[in-house]
């Protein structure tokens, strides 16, 4: 049990209790082994007396270890509301040391939450009393890292609180690239951009098997300590990012050739004093800064340079995450509907069996071969129904003869005669009529089912694009309505649902 916390249910138990299965599509891979999370905290240098922002707290495994490591305050940011009850339980046990912020970290104002929770400000270049840690989906982690990286030089956001180190879990390959030394295969745009501002160090390699569920790749925790003084003095972070991006697209060319991508005469105007025979992977960060600063002031650069990637990264991530979430929700609703339909189908089959049995019994009463009829009914209801009509007709005719005779003998009145016939056959006649109608009706129902499914999905897509929050309830109402119909052809409906390709829905976004 975690030091400093009262006894609490295990994370695995909370996951079971609150039904917190990982959403694999959203790359939720949990760390449930507290030995591992404690080791990560230790390798991050411990959190004693620190204010720690934990990004993507999930069910709270790592959170417990951070608290156990003596953090003064933990601010756990999580965007998936399913985790709120589990985190709330931990918050209550933490005696004020844990606070939960339910939000997308892309939208969080770090300086605001740190002031709200009275984090201590430390003057640059001292080591900060604030630390940030996160086991995030890998793509999200990269976007956020770029967000924090851009806050360093203007000392905004996190960096109003001093030299805040970041401890981020990435897929191993990405951490290797971020930390890659110059001259290695892994030295890329990201290495240059991150290392210009941070001192990176891989502190822990985490094999995939320790996550639940296991991702497809191994991971590692990288520590990013802001440099006291960045390498070089970048004039425009936007152009620095642009220049690094463009030059690394020319990885196989030496600088004198590759630089041409930045515009005509770039070689003459931007490379003075730089070894032009190097490939990008051998160019120092200082030289990248020099080239980028010259480019920023350069008249010869292309007009309308696309800096959109730099500006829109956060936006596109938010959009991607929202869409992924919507698709997961849609898939979950489909799953629920399928379960409901299967139950209804079983119910319907039971009813059908019962009806067939009743039909067989009814036939047995007017036929001398009950066994044969009992076999015929479940196999071919239409044939059985026809057979039953013939038998009924025959039987009515026999009775008619018998009663005509009685009537002729004046033993019964005409009225009694018809009443007798009516009573005897009414039920069977109704049943036969119903059965004959059934097939035509079924066809109609199948058509209706298809129409409802089509409309529901179209509505769903339209609603998604209109960002209409009521879409789920509309869709659910349609389906609930559908399920109320006793005569529904569940099998056809299930087939239709099975044939829905979730990728088609994705395409429509
Ligand atoms: C890989 S899981 C890790 C959960 C937990 N920290 C652990 O180690 O078991 C990532 C968590 O980050 C959350 N998350 C993903 N994107 C986020 C974002 N933009 N802002 C806040 N939380 C996010 C997910 O909902 C999920 O709970």
Automatic annotation (TrEMBL):
Principal location class: mitochondrion
Gene3D superfamilies named in the record: Ribosomal RNA adenine dimethylase-like, domain 2, Vaccinia Virus protein VP39
Bias type Low complexity, positions: 459-472
Gene Ontology process terms (BP): transcription initiation at mitochondrial promoter
The entry's keywords: Coiled coil, Methyltransferase, Mitochondrion, RNA-binding, rRNA processing, S-adenosyl-L-methionine, Transcription, Transcription regulation, Transferase, Transit peptide
One Gene Ontology molecular-function label: mitochondrial transcription factor activity
Family the entry assigns: Belongs to the class I-like SAM-binding methyltransferase superfamily. rRNA adenine N(6)-methyltransferase family.
Name recorded for this polypeptide: rRNA adenine N(6)-methyltransferase
The organism of origin for this protein: Polysphondylium violaceum
């Amino acid at each position: 049990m975690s030091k400093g916390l009262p006894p609490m249910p295990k994370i695995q138990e909370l996951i079971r209790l609150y039904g917190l299965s990982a959403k694999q599509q959203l790359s939720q891979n949990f760390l449930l082994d507290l030995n591992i999370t404690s080791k990560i905290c230790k390798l991050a240098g411990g959190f004693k007396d620190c204010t720690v922002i934990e990004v993507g707290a999930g069910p709270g495994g790592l959170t417990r270890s951070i608290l156990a490591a003596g953090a003064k305050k933990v601010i756990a940011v999580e965007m998936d509301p399913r985790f709120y009850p589990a985190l709330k339980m931990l918050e209550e046990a933490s005696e004020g040391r844990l606070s939960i912020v339910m939000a997308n970290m892309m939208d969080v104002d770090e300086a605001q939450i740190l002031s709200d929770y009275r984090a201590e400000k430390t003057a640059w270049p001292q080591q900060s009393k604030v630390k940030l840690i996160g086991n995030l989906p890998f793509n999200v982690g990269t976007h956020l890292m770029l967000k924090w990286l851009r806050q360093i030089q203007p000392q905004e956001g996190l960096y109003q609180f001093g030299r805040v180190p970041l401890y981020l879990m990435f897929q191993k390959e990405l951490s290797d690239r971020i930390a890659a030394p110059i001259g290695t295969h892994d030295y890329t745009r990201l290495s240059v951009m991150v290392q210009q501002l941070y001192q990176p160090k891989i502190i822990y390699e985490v094999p995939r098997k320790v996550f639940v569920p296991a991702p497809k790749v191994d991971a590692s925790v990288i520590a990013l300590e802001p440099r006291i003084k960045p390498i070089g003095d970048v004039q425009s972070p936007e152009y620095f990012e642009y220049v690094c991006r463009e030059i690394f697209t020319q990885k196989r060319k030496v600088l004198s050739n590759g630089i041409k991508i930045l515009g005509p005469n770039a070689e003459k105007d931007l490379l003075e004093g730089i070894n032009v025979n190097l490939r990008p992977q051998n160019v120092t960060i200082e030289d990248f800064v020099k080239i980028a600063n010259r480019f920023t002031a350069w008249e010869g650069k292309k007009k309308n340079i696309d800096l959109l990637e730099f500006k829109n990264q956060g936006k596109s991530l938010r959009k991607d995450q929202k869409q992924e979430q919507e698709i997961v929700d849609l898939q979950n609703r489909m799953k629920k509907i399928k379960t409901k339909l299967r139950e209804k189908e079983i119910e319907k089959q039971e009813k059908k069996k019962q009806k067939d049995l009743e039909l067989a019994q009814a036939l047995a009463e007017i036929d001398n071969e009950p066994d044969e009829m009992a076999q015929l009914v479940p196999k071919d209801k239409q044939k059985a129904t026809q057979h039953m009509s013939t038998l009924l007709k025959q039987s009515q005719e026999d009775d008619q003869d018998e009663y005509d005779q009685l009537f002729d003998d004046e033993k019964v009145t005409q009225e009694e005669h018809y009443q007798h016939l009516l009573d005897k056959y009414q039920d069977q006649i109704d049943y036969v009529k119903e059965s004959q109608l059934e097939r035509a009706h079924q066809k109609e129902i199948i058509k209706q089912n298809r129409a409802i499914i089509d409309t529901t999905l179209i509505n769903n897509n339209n609603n998604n694009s209109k960002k209409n929050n009521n879409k789920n309830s509309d869709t659910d109402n349609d389906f609930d309505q559908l399920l109320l119909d006793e005569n529904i052809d569940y099998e056809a409906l299930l087939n239709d649902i099975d044939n829905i390709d979730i990728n088609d829905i994705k395409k429509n976004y």
